[in-house]
Amino acid sequence: MYSITYVSSATHAFSQEQLFELLDECRGNNLRENLTGQLLYKNQEFMQVLEGEEEPLKFTFEKICCDKRHKNILILNEGSIDHREFCDWTMGFYNLDNEYEHHIPGYSDILNYPLTGNEFQSQPSLAQILLLSFKDTY
């Protein structure tokens, strides 16, 4: 198994409808490639983790990097993993712009960090903590 976690900046603000369209597209692509993961959106920024076999995951990530809906892609973490963390989801999703953060179980100040901020770049494990914090609430 292999995993890539990255952040990027959206090229425009996404409406809820546009986010759902993106999510449907991600889920279809991930189902075909047997990939799992989670996507977060906040303040025109994305954070995503993808898991699966290395070759199809890297192929999918190359396509993601060419997608004109986002820019400034930064890989936070990449490498082999022992097991999938999001094995039940072709793509979990949260729009953090619509959440009432303090009502989320396990609320943490990391929800206040910009997804593309230095906090995640300097400590990639924070990205994993943030992504996993939504695993059981989806």
How many helices? The count is 4
Uncertain segments are 100-108
How large is the radius of gyration?
A: 14 Å
Per DSSP, what share of the residues sits in E-state strands of 2 or more residues? 25-35%
* Assembly status: single chain
Specify the helix fraction band: 25-40%
Q: How many individual β-strands?
A: 5
What general outline do the C-alpha atoms trace? Answer: globular
Describe the largest sheet: 5 strands, mixed
Task: Please give the order of strands in the largest beta sheet.
Answer: 4-1-3-2-5
N-to-C SSE string, H for helix and E for strand: EHEEHEEHH
Q: End-to-end span in angstroms?
A: 23 Å
Mean pLDDT: 80
Structure class: alpha+beta
Description:
With 138 residues, the protein is α+β, with helices and mostly antiparallel strands. The chain is built from four helices and five strands, in the order βαββαββαα. The protein has helices at 16-33, 54-66, 118-122, 124-133; strands spanning 2-10, 36-42, 45-52, 70-80, 92-95. It has a five-stranded mixed β-sheet with strand order 4-1-3-2-5, sandwiched between helices. Strand 2 and strand 3 (45-52) form a beta hairpin. The relative contact order is 0.24.
